[in-house]
Design brief:
Largest sheet: none
Distance between the termini: 40 Å
Strand content: under 5%
Structural class: mainly alpha
Order of helices and strands: HHHHHHH
Number of helices: 7
Radius of gyration: 18 Å
Number of strands: 0
């Protein structure tokens, strides 16, 4: 819409999508570097009662598949499947942590909702995935 408003058509949206993809790749490479050099720090973040929920933002970002799909159907599908599986696994892990009890009330913050809410993005982006349809019985 904004591209049409400014008279540049879909170019503005494509540029924003490309920029988002580039930022995601750079951040991923940076975090993978941290994981290789300081695995104990990454493990501590993943086990932290608040910081661990921000791993859900990574799985949400994998759902950039909707941006990639028009340019590469295979890449879009692969990102969507990977993002969907990781999102569901992470949401399940967070729920199991919450149900296990023993949490300090001071750690009950809105960030706990990130992985669960991320599962909604699966349906939103999946609706635009050009997946092969199977015949219904």
């Amino acid at each position: 819409m904004s591209g049409q408003h400014y008279g540049v058509g879909g170019l503005l949206g494509e540029a924003i999508g490309a920029f988002a993809g580039l930022v995601f790749v750079l951040l991923t490479l940076g975090y993978l570097s941290k994981w290789v050099k300081h695995p104990e720090a990454v493990r501590a973040e993943f086990n932290h009662p608040v910081a661990s929920n921000f791993f859900g933002t990574v799985t949400i970002a994998l759902l950039l598949s909707a941006v990639a799909a028009p340019h590469s159907q295979l890449l879009g599908q692969a990102l969507w499947i990977l993002g969907s599986v990781l999102t569901v696994l992470l949401a399940g892990l967070v729920v199991s942590r919450l149900l296990s009890g023993g949490h300090d009330q001071l750690n009950a913050v809105p960030a706990w909702l990130i992985p669960g809410v991320a599962t909604l993005d699966i349906a939103v982006t999946g609706a635009h995935m050009p997946m092969p349809r199977t015949a219904r019985c």
